[in-house]
Amino acid sequence: PEVASGSAPRPAAAPKPLPAASPQTASELKKDDSSGGGGGDEEVALSENVCEADDAQGVEDSKAHWGVKQSFQSYITGSIAQGKWELADVEHSDGEYHFSGANGAVSPDGKIGTVAYKGALHFTGHNGILDLLIEDPEIQWEGNEGHLIAVVVSNTIEGEPIDYGRTSVGRLEFEELDAGSGKASGRARLFLSESGSQAFAEFYEPGLELDPVSFEADLGGKPNCTDVQGKATSGGAKGELGGKAADKAAELRKDFDPSQTTGAENDSDSTFTVHDAKPAGLAGFADPNTPLVVTAAFLIAGGAMTVFVLRHPNS
Length: 315
Fold this sequence. Notes:
This is Htaa domain-containing protein. Keywords: Membrane, Transmembrane, Transmembrane helix. Residues 63-215 form the Htaa domain. Pfam families: HtaA. By secondary structure, the protein is of the alpha+beta class. The chain has one domain (3-311). Helix content is 15%, strand content 36%. It has four helices and 13 strands. It has helices at residues 70-76, 194-199, 243-254, 291-311, and strands at residues 3-5, 24-25, 57-66, 84-88, 91-93, 96-106, 112-118, 120-125, 130-142, 145-155, 161-180, 183-192, 209-219. Strands 3-6-7-9-10-11-12-13 form an eight-stranded antiparallel barrel. Helix 3 (243-254) packs across helix 4. It is elongated and about 50 Å long. The model is unreliable at 7-22, 24-41, 236-288 and 302-315 (pLDDT under 50).
């Protein structure tokens, strides 16, 4: 697949999200003194029946558009994280990532549907401590509600890779949804799920509004869902930070004042290139890539985004 990134173009290659260690699965995530956690599934299945319906239409071609979170894009390539993103079979323009797909099913009245896409987003920063892979997203809906589902692999705040499997990234609330005459399209607000929050090291709280998701699709023929499409998710660890990681996070939250930060929006230029300059560091910390400082950076970016949502609920 074609791979692009926030830096210079790279040769075609599959993304290598976590070369340093083999990721645990969500069910293997256990409490210990460093990372904490616990098993549990957040199952979602809104569109399974439509894939088997004789009167449903298949998906011949579709595009989906999602920016994840604009401030997160800036944070990744900014002076704190000094990271980048790599794209496999995904394009980036106008602040959004663009996915293509040709699998799915939509009911005759358009009220139930699922559209699957191929491609991967791979975010890295803080010399690999921050490592997030979002792959093969799927949009499921029933009525005006739905879920954005994807395969997710992410590091904990201690740098431990966790494989969440196919899980709900967030809940969709459609503001526009239209299907008919061989076409389907929609635009939805997206709110971070519990498993999605864990993929962001639990410093973006569940319910945080991410960038909206939109799609358009050409419909025709019989349903052509993938083997897992429309079905319940297989991942979604349910747990909390424990031990040393929880103590560090609690200590940082205690003195954290979001009003004293400007967020990550100012940490990147408009071209989203990888910064070569070394970070200036945070007062009192010698190494800006240690888990403690990474935690502080997440809190600054996440806190600023939370304040933005609270102060501007209609934005």
